[in-house]
Specification:
Layout lengths: L4 E7 L3 H11 L4 E8 L6 H14 L7 E3 L10 H4 L1 H6 L19 H11 L4 E5 L4 H9 L7 E7 L23 H4 L2 H8 L5 E4 L1 H4 L6 H9 L5 H12 L7 H10 L4 E10 L9 E3 L4 E9 L1 H11 L3
Helix pairs in contact: 1-2, 1-11, 1-12, 5-6, 6-8, 10-11
This protein binds calcium ion.
Length: 308
Amino acid sequence: MSQKQLVLMDHDGGVDDYLATMLLMTMDQIELLGVIVTPADCYVQPAVSATRKILDLMSGSHIPVAESQVRGINPFPYLYRRDSFVVDHLPILNQNDTIRTPLVAESGEDFMVQVLREAPKPVTLMVTGPLTTVATALKIAPEIETKIAKIVWMGGALNVPGNVEKNWEPGQDGSAEWNVYWDAISAAQVWQTQIEIIMCPLDITNNVPVTSEFVQKIGRQRHYPISDLAGQCYALVIPQDYYAWDVLATAYLGNPDAYQLREWETEIITSGSSQGRTKVVSGGRKIYAMDQVDKEWFYSYILQQWSR
Ligand SMILES: [Ca+2]
């Protein structure tokens, strides 16, 4: 049996989801069993297409990609989602006429069930979008719960404000993080399982902004094609207030010792003005949150991985 950590990725097609996928592909200790695209922070067709092209570029064309058919409750702003079209059209991803990375015929949720059933040992789910596909797969086949080693998840905001802004989403109090807000009901369903959850909440991602200086550093690596693609993706989001959300969460898989975790008792608020909040509540569901990371280490780690 492979000594490598088995990982199934479930991302939602945002700019940092592609970067997280690229980072995962550079980790020698990981065996990536597939990538599922949940249709949240994207338009799903270009997101699936871009994901397959990225795997082609990173010598990952043996890794299947599946399109999740789940639907959320509160759509992501279209200004974020349209980045999926831009990334899919970047020249560096369009140097070949055909895509080699296979698109699986079944839905992402069915694919998740199948991969977990067939895995020779428990699999880590690396989730950088909403938990809807995971919750749906667990509904289809509850027995797969024992095949999930843990869920490493970018999501939630514990002791800091959320990022669902009041002026974009009237009636909300600003406490929710988008991956929860898209479908808080599914997040709450995953909270009801016994699966170990390691969250990468806004509390820690607020420490790793994507700065102009950092993006220019990527360029000066002059390493093609990977750092070039990473730099182009980050350049696209420079006008926004952007953080290395999904990338920080994913870097954990290769370097758990670089992070300090902290246990919290939490609940997911599923309705009302705090819908999508991950609230710290005594007696709530125990989760681990990434609490501390050496910021300078993180930036140099991703620069190094993308220059390989
Ligand atoms: Ca994401």
